[in-house]
Design goal:
Strand order of the largest sheet: 5-4-3-2-1-12-13-14
Helix content: 25-40%
Shape: globular
CATH superfamily of the largest domain: HAD superfamily/HAD-like
Largest sheet: 8 strands, mixed
Number of domains: 2
Length: 285
């Protein structure tokens, strides 16, 4: 690989760009700013919604965003390039399926907010088990970056009366129940990402981070070989495989991700993203 081939860099947030305290170090900010000065495009590619992602990456802007696992693509000027959503009818069907299985909690995600039904007592235990995993805690409480949320007992009524783009649905429950739900909704050809055994993200058909990067290569007129991508989770796998240079984080516990990557970076607590970029992209020829 020639060093000057990299024209765009896509970076996941949690477990990748952010350290374990949800911060981006001054060193990493400096390296990424130098990339932008050299004309290299930066893309924040995350499962988070757009509101949350922008708050976390505010020190890096202007950058492009791929949020809600690829359901929304926004360029560095803030213009929406593409947005996809799950229909209200299909959302109803998925919720009914989860309710028939029982003891599964869900919430709906739009670019700006979360829509949450009440938590039944029977779901308190699986929710707490989910929350006591680090990624589960981030998904549900969104850490310190509080995302606007709507709580209602009448989810369908709210959706009928209000504009709410359903770009992602998150289901949480006991592993056996989540596995059963995953099997039952496969017929809809939706994009399903398993964060861990307690939860799944459901996105519109064909949506994932890799597919979103492919869309950007077409928009920008650059080849996939010119893309570098960093990630640590299940929802990063398609992106890592798509990019000409896919980089897995050392802190990732996913064997498949590391095997699919071209490189393994130091951990997110060791400025792994910045160190690889400095070594490969910014180094003198």
């Amino acid at each position: 690989m020639k060093r000057n081939q990299i024209k765009a860099i896509a970076i996941d947030l949690d477990g990748t760009l952010l350290d374990s305290r949800q911060r981006i170090s001054p060193y990493t900010i400096k390296v990424l700013q130098e990339c932008r000065q050299r004309g290299i495009k930066l893309v924040i590619a995350t499962g988070r919604n757009h509101y949350s992602a922008r708050r976390l990456a505010r020190d890096l802007e202007p950058v492009s965003f791929v949020t809600n696992n690829g359901s929304l693509v926004v360029d560095e000027k803030g213009e929406i390039l593409r947005e996809k959503e799950i229909s209200l009818q299909l959302t109803r069907e998925l919720i009914v399926k989860s309710q028939k299985i029982g003891r599964i909690y869900y919430f709906l995600v739009s670019p700006k907010e979360l829509l949450l039904p009440p938590t039944p007592r029977s779901l308190i235990l699986p929710l707490f088990r989910h929350l006591f995993t680090w990624k589960g805690f981030l998904e549900y409480l969104d850490n310190r970056n509080i995302v606007p949320r709507v709580r209602t007992r009448d989810v369908e009524g709210y959706l009928r009366k209000n504009s709410f783009q359903i770009q992602k649905i998150n289901f949480i429950g006991e592993p056996s129940r989540i596995a059963r739900l995953e099997g039952e909704i496969e017929e809809h050809n939706l994009a399903i990402t398993r964060g861990h055994e307690w939860s799944i993200d459901v996105n519109p058909p064909g949506v994932n981070k890799g597919e979103a990067l492919k869309f950007l290569t077409e928009q920008w007129g650059i080849g996939e070989d010119c893309f570098m991508a960093f990630g640590d989770g299940h929802n990063d796998l398609d992106m890592i495989r798509f990019a000409g240079t896919g980089v897995a984080m050392d802190n990732s516990t996913l064997k498949t991700l590391k095997e699919s990557a071209d490189l393994v970076a130091p951990s997110n607590n060791e400025d792994g993203v910045a160190r690889i970029i400095e070594k490969i992209v910014l180094a003198e020829s």
